[in-house]
Each structure stands twice: as C-alpha cells, then as structure tokens.
Amino acid sequence: QLTTNYYQKTCPKFYDIVRKAVTDKQLSTPTTAGATLRLFFHDCMVGGCDASVLVTSDSFNKAERDAAVNLPLSGDGFDAVARAKGALELECPGIASCADTLAAAAHNLVIAAGGPAFELRLGRKDSLESKATDPENQFPLPTMSMSEVIKIFTSKGFSVQEMVALVGAHTIGLSHCNQFSQRLFKFNKSSDIDPAYNPEYAAGLKKLCENYTKDPSMSAFNDVITPTKFDNMYYKNLRKGMGLLATDSAMFGDSRTRPFVDTYAEDENKFFQDFARAMEKLSVLHVKTGTKGEVRSRCDSFNTLSY
Ligand code: HEM
Ligand SMILES: [Ca+2]
Ligand SMILES: [Ca+2]
C-alpha cells in the first residue's frame, strides 16, 4: 500500500525538507539521531508507525507519550519531528503525515550517522488515538529475560536474527543510569557488580553514575567506543563485556542470540544489510492508510478531538 514516491506530485521536496530540518538539528544537538531512532521504534511497536507516540496529553486524555516506558524518550526526537513538520507545512500544507515525517527523520539520521539506508515507503496516516495504557506489555525492558524479549519481538513478526540486528541501533545514543544501575551497585550477595561486565568498564560506569539518585539525568553512551557513529561496534563491545544494559549483555550471553552477535561483530556489511531489512519491516508495521487515519496539522495533537 505504501510507495517510495508517494509525495512525488503533492510534495516533491518532502524528503529534502525533512533531511535539511533534521540534519540542521543534529549538527547543533548531537543527541538528536539516537533520540529520533528510539522514538520511531517506540512509535512502531504500539499500533504501528502512526505517530501515536507524538500526541501530548490533555485534561481529557492521558496519551501514550506519558506511559512509563515512554517517559525517558528524549525531547530532541520530538523536536526534530516538529521542526521537519513545520517546514513541510510551509511548503505543502496538510499533505505530509507525522508518521511519514518521523519515519523519514529516523531514516535520514541513521544515514547521517554512517548507517545504511533502508527502503523508505511513504503514505502512512496519523493515528486518531493515543492512550497511555496502549504501550503496556509491548516493549522489551532491560530487566527482562531473553525469553521474554524474544517473545515480544516474535509477537511483532521478527525473528531472533532480525531482533539482534535491530538492537544494533544501540550503536548510537544514551541510556540513563537508572536503566543499568542495578548491575553496578549491590548486584547480588556475592558481588556488587554484574560479572557479565568487563571490570574496567564497570568501574568507569560506577564512577559516572555515582550520583544518579540525586541527578536522574546522568547517562552513559550505549556504545562507549564510537557513540555517535552508526557501525557494528555495538557487537564488538558485547563480546568484550561492554554491553551497557542487562539485555545487551544477554545478547552475547544467550546461545540463541550469540551466533548473530558474532556474525555482526565480524561483518559490518552483513549487519548493515540485515539492519536495513529489519528496519524496513519495522517501518511498515500495521500502518494506517486511507480513512483509517488523518494527516495531522500538528504532530502533538489530533485535528479534531475524537473523544
Ligand atoms: C532488547 C530490546 C531493547 C531494549 C531492552 C531496549 C532498551 C533501551 C533502554 C532502556 C534505553 C535507554 C533509555 C533511556 O535511559 O533514556 C534504550 C536506548 C535506545 N534504544 Fe533501545 N532497547 C531495545 C531495542 C531497541 C531497538 C530495536 C531500537 C531501534 C531500532 C532501539 C533504539 C534505541 C536507541 C537509538 C537508544 C538511544 C536513545 C537516546 O539516545 O536518546 N532499541 N533502549
Ligand atoms: Ca504507534
Ligand atoms: Ca557506534
């Protein structure tokens, strides 16, 4: 249903406008790429890629964005989409959906960071709903077992290999200390530190996160070696005990996922190929077309109140 040339007649500069807006923002705010890629993931996992995550709550509706799992999403991703949408509305008002704008923004920022292009199909409509309860049980959490994580990805149609490729997104971006602090302080009876960590790496993290309870904004790079470059360093790190989240370490620790970690650590081209294909699949999950959605004029609110 979606096509790569959807805006060819109605908004031929769609892609260039998005690219300009998000790369400008990325240059001034280097956290933009990670923030936007994660925002796209969080949109697509709940009701498909329909910009449901972008809507803000009001006094009548607590929106998806205010679900616990979405609260840490960085404002930079929302802002990148708002800027691109603002520029699009000037050029071709009422034409480009927020869902397409977010997809194109994520696509572009992956490429700008050195990653692969995935086939970007367009024509998504924006959701008519966004509820804070919708994300329940839809997301992998760092505290989950690998079986639970696999179950979530399988339920969305992804194989274990596709899941390992997608998590390679952790080659860029940040995680807050509270997402991995249990691995550093009082891990269990026999050790303060999770033995899956490389000891020097863990010591560095411990220092970095020393005051995280007082300053909840404290965060660490997901990939400590090349934090802003989209490459296969994430998988190389996993093999050295430098996976930040417990689920990152488990990708190497679990025999179901380790073979793919090894493959991607050794072959960046293969990672890029598989990541691109899995992103293509993620980007068309349950998309809404025709009258099942609308083209919002602002990404943070519905055109007409639907409740
Ligand atoms: C096992 C599966 C996954 C788990 C448990 C997981 C969990 C997390 C957590 C807890 C954070 C840190 C959030 C914060 O503290 O602000 C994070 C960051 C991030 N995740 Fe994942 N994630 C998973 C898979 C994915 C996938 C499939 C993608 C994209 C395709 C993705 C993209 C990102 C990005 C780009 C960041 C950095 C965000 C930023 O810099 O603002 N993650 N992830
Ligand atoms: Ca969604
Ligand atoms: Ca990297």
From TrEMBL:
Judged by the first EC level, this protein's enzyme class is oxidoreductase
Q: Which InterPro entries match?
A: Haem_peroxidase, Haem_peroxidase_sf, Peroxidase_pln, Peroxidases_AS, Peroxidases_heam-ligand_BS, Secretory_peroxidase
- Catalytic function, reaction form: 2 a phenolic donor + H2O2 = 2 a phenolic radical donor + 2 H2O
For this record, the Gene Ontology CC terms, alphabetical, are: extracellular region
Read off the Pfam families from this record: peroxidase
This entry's comment on the bound cofactor is: Binds 2 calcium ions per subunit.
Main location as per UniProt: secreted
Identify the residue position(s) of the site Transition state stabilizer.
R38
User: Which PROSITE patterns does this chain map to?
Assistant: PEROXIDASE_1 (PS00435), PEROXIDASE_2 (PS00436), PEROXIDASE_4 (PS50873)
Q: Where does heme b bind?
A: H170
Key word Disulfide bond present:
yes
The intrachain disulfides are C11-C92, C44-C49, C98-C299, C177-C209
Give the enzyme's EC designation. 1.11.1.7
Which family is this protein grouped under? Belongs to the peroxidase family. Classical plant (class III) peroxidase subfamily. Belongs to the peroxidase family. Ascorbate peroxidase subfamily.
Protein name from the UniProt record: Peroxidase
Native source organism of the sequence = Glycine max
Identify the taxonomic lineage of the organism of origin. Eukaryota, Viridiplantae, Streptophyta, Embryophyta, Tracheophyta
